[in-house]
Amino acid sequence: MIKVLLVLHVFVTIALIGVVLIQRSEGGGLGLGGGQGMGSFMTGRGTANLLTRTTAILGTAFFVLSLALALLYKGSAADTNAAILNGPAPASPTAPAPAAPPAPALPSSLPQTPVDAQPAPPAPNKTP
């Protein structure tokens, strides 16, 4: 039952995307260019009404199918792994991580902090 509803949900979703993409943002309907859309098929107003009605029907079907699938998944057994979050937990590593190597010791002649640093001695003045 869930698989049938899921396939139907995918078809309704694709149809809804197609109907929305066909529409023009100004409400002209069938954004295929020109004022008539598909020639003498329908008037501009009739096309807009048809697309609006189709969008409303497909949107309602999408909403109802989404709620039905959510309720069916909620009511299904917990051990069926129907949802991604119901899957097994990832395995943790069994070997401990290697210890970090010790940091090399600094020679005592180097200053440890900038406060301990001394300015360089002035260079001797060599004037001929």
Describe the protein's topology.
Blueprint (H helix, E strand, L loop, with lengths): L1 H21 L21 H32 L53
Helix pairs in contact: 1-2
Q: Could you characterize the architecture of this molecule?
A:
The chain has 128 residues and is mainly α. It has helices at 2-22, 44-75. The longest helix is centred in the middle third of the chain and has 32 residues, at 44-75. It is elongated, with a radius of gyration of 36 Å.
Quick structural gist:
With 128 residues, the chain is an all-alpha fold. It contains two helices and no strands.
Give the SSE string.
Answer: HH
Strand content: under 5%
Structural class computed from helices and strand pairing: mainly alpha
**Overall morphology:** elongated
Mean pLDDT: 73
Classify the helix fraction into a percent range: 40-55%
- What is the number of helices? 2
